[in-house]
Amino acid sequence: MKVLVTGGAGYIGSTICSALEDNGHIPVILDSLVTGRVEFTRNRIFYKGDIADTELLEKIFREHGDIEVTIHCAALIVVPESVEKPYEYYRENVAKSLELFYNLNRLGCKKIVFSSSASIYDDVPGFMVTEESPLNPRSPYARTKYMMEMVLKDMCNAYGMKGIALRYFNPIGADPKMRSGVHVKEPSHVLGKLVDVATGKLPEFVITGVNWDTRDGTGIRDYIHVWDLAMAHIKAVEQFDEAFERAGENTNYLVINLGTGNGVTVRELVNAFEKVYGKIKKREAPPRPGDVAGAYANADKAWKLLGWKAELPIEKGIADALEWGRIRETIIDYSK
What we know:
Elements lengths: L1 E5 L4 H12 L3 E6 L13 E4 L5 H10 L3 E6 L6 H6 L1 H21 L4 E7 L10 E2 L10 H20 L2 E7 L1 E3 L17 H9 L6 E4 L11 E2 L1 E3 H13 L1 H8 L5 E6 L5 E2 H12 L4 E4 L10 E2 L2 H7 L7 H18 L5
Parallel strand pairs: 1-2, 1-4, 2-3, 4-5, 5-7, 6-15, 7-12, 8-11, 9-14
Antiparallel strand pairs: 10-13
């Protein structure tokens, strides 16, 4: 099938496009390239532009009237930056998604898979969250994801659309075939920083936050290989209608966690990294603005509704991230 992928030139979006192609589907990429990379669009159908550009969306659907579903990945995603620039985050993530959903419905594309985030969950005893766990988004970034979910849910209820919100936990690694990976020059997430230390781009790794109420004081996360994450989207588009049937609910909006079901602390991730790579220099520091203790997924619903579960171990994510860090600058031209 043909699938519109907004943000398809980004880290996760490009990996989803590769997974779509590997499974016989055709991605159509819409990306502004504000953060995405043109290198990830090569030999793919690509439209450069804004998700809120009505004329461009009309052109896409005029030229690809057989698009069956949209995977909406486009968003600004850096938590500390969202604290500094809330206006930009609400405009880019919320206001423009509202226009995107409106236009998709108007153009007859009523099936949407939305990239949401586990950052919207509240802290819970034991740190494992189900889709019914309480929500408490605590950064502007997290609040934009929560608002985008609410907008999509309300529009599905009002306009006969159907939406599946996939709440991502913490993606790591790269496409195992090394077609794409983390592309920002200075990644803000933990494994990207570890790789930058290993490749000499950073002098040391800083463990931010060591006094959380976890087993070793560092934040707890659910680190999921980006390829496993991408394959969940393949299941979602291929079994879109079946997922609603399996849910057995009279609804047109579903929420599904995407994680491994295992909680790993930052210190444990660093230990796993050092087992794969070797020792690195590290130090401790206070948490960054917007940081939280974290959570990990109960992923039972993903198995029940999509027949999906994470398969790749954390060591594979680390090894792929290291390999991508080694070759990244042979693929991405940062001079442009």
